[in-house]
Amino acid sequence: MKSSAIPGTLIPFLIMINGCARVNPACPGGRALVPFPIETAQPAALRKVSGGYRGCVTSAALSPDGSLIGISTTATPVVILWNTRTGKVQHRLVGHTGIGQTVAFSPSSQKVATGCTDGDIRLWDARSEKPIKTIHVSRNAVRSVAFSPDGRWLVSRGDGRIVRVWDSHSGRLMRKLAESEAIIQSFAISPDSRLLATGSSLGSIRLWELATGKLKRTLLRPGGPVFSLAFAPDGRHLASGGLLQNDGDLALWNIGSGMAERSWTPHRGRISALAFSPDGKTLATGSGEDDGDIGLWDTDTWKLMQSLPGHGKTVQSVTFVPHTSWLLSGYSLDTIRLWDTRTGGLLCELCPERQEPRRQAASGLMER
Hints:
Blueprint: E1 14-17, E2 20-23, E3 48-50, E4 57-62, E5 68-73, E6 79-83, E7 88-93, E8 100-105, E9 111-116, E10 120-125, E11 131-136, E12 144-147, E13 153-157, E14 162-167, E15 173-178, E16 184-189, E17 195-200, E18 205-209, E19 215-219, E20 226-231, E21 237-244, E22 247-254, E23 260-264, E24 271-276, E25 282-287, E26 294-298, E27 304-308, E28 315-320, E29 326-331, E30 336-340, E31 345-351
Parallel strand pairs: 3-31
Antiparallel strand pairs: 1-2, 4-5, 5-6, 6-7, 8-9, 9-10, 10-11, 12-13, 13-14, 14-15, 16-17, 17-18, 18-19, 20-21, 21-22, 22-23, 24-25, 25-26, 26-27, 28-29, 29-30, 30-31
């Protein structure tokens, strides 16, 4: 089917067939939206799909091209790659010997990095599930890994005072960046891959040159651990989420001046996850307390646009789905949810295999 759309016009990637979302063949390159298996004709409670995993989710990552969700859990060292187009498990990454802690995709979506309590980082081919390289970090757990946006670096964090910067191609350790006293709780990489921000258990936020390891600036907070960090897409601002006097502490920092332009309390308890939308117009904040709520904030007015209800556990991650108004959230309980940020509606829920609903959807993507 040829498209008659004017150049630059957005062509809907999903079309509704028998109440189910399907790929629109008129969409060039298939890049406008990600075809999650959503049955919009049914109540949200029935829009459940098996994620192919078992246990509580420790990490949920979306590939930059939107085609895969990487899932690690407490039940097994096997990492799941779930295909968003078919609604089924595409690969199972087998190799770790501990409990999976973290999953990250390369900017090209062709490689996956996984970290585990066995102290290793493993690199995989996302297309074939073949292992590429094993990096032996330490005897302690690897809690978080991330590729730099230019794909050059891989950054990892454990339970101590050090973040490590690796060559993502060779797996060679390039440098260690250390806090003098505090434990590093979080990190984020700037969109231009030049800066690494680290947040500590004592409230310090440090900005490092990623290529040299040089400390550029320390941002001063009143105290309390920093559990989450996120750079704005323009690279000029950094959001930090933490805990201060039992309440969530959210701050927006100007990278150039090193000053906090705004700070407020969006949630009860710690802020466990942060993400800016690709256009920078929305900031998503995730609660680390029992409510598990997600707040969506207008970055022009800083007013709350939507509050997405949780279900009793910590929000582990929030990720905006490319080219959509959708948000993917992972929880420490056992589910992964897909939201429409415009309406606040729940679109789809990935569940462990044992919670797979016993009903057949018209699309064939939800099986008995």
